């Protein structure tokens, strides 16, 4: 078991989570971990935000049964990682990053590393993004709306593919790296749930990604794949919320 050593609500939708997991402390920017709250829980792939004094931190959006279970827990059954290929760091110049909803949490470690290499890093957010004071130190400037890059040397996007697809298509001419949102379950190339098509070839988001050159991705199939378990997730959430209500009622009447 891995103890949760820190948990803080940062908004209605987001919480900061700190865990003791020594094997994650040497993560590289852009890598993720898989957390499984109990033996019966689903595995959750989460971008590693940072390491503070041996505490590994994640910025988590409460958006389903698994993340709510994590929110209510004091320890975690299984933690795997660091997983995935690190982001291709370099001296690019001006880097424009676009994050929808939880996107800024995945962009944070990459932005911090790029900034330390003297790149100018700008963040544009939309949707239900996390409180910006948690992530803004990694960026030179944060904007509350998507603007087309004017002079970007690199564009990086993270968020739901269905919402980013048109934007990415409009970026023609700008080199762009995107975070795959295909469902990652095993993280080690066994279950094939995270398949995407890149340059016409099948690639695994968990081990070949999660970062891919955006123009090489088949966004149509990625959009379909990211919604593969939407129905099951919504049923699981419904059941979990019922269970929480039952628990609250038992506590109130005991
Ligand atoms: S998550 Fe199982 S193969 Fe990629």
Automatic annotation (TrEMBL):
Required co-factors: [2Fe-2S] cluster; FAD
GO BP: pyrimidine nucleotide biosynthetic process
Molecular function as annotated in GO: 2 iron, 2 sulfur cluster binding; flavin adenine dinucleotide binding; metal ion binding
Residues the entry annotates as binding FAD: 59-61
InterPro entries cross-referenced by the UniProt entry: Cyt_c3_hydrogenase_gsu, Dihydroorotate_DH_ele_sf, Dihydroorotate_DH_Fe-S-bd, PyrK_electron_transfer, Riboflavin_synthase-like_b-brl
Domain Dihydroorotate dehydrogenase electron transfer subunit iron-sulphur cluster binding: 185-217
Chain residues that bind [2Fe-2S] cluster: 186, 191, 194, 206
SUPFAM superfamilies on file: Riboflavin synthase domain-like (SSF63380)
Comment on bound cofactor: Binds 1 [2Fe-2S] cluster per subunit.
A Pfam entry, by short name: DHODB_Fe-S_bind
Keywords, alphabetical: 2Fe-2S, Electron transport, FAD, Flavoprotein, Iron, Iron-sulfur, Metal-binding, Transport
Family in the record: Belongs to the PyrK family.
Protein name: Ferredoxin--NADP+ reductase
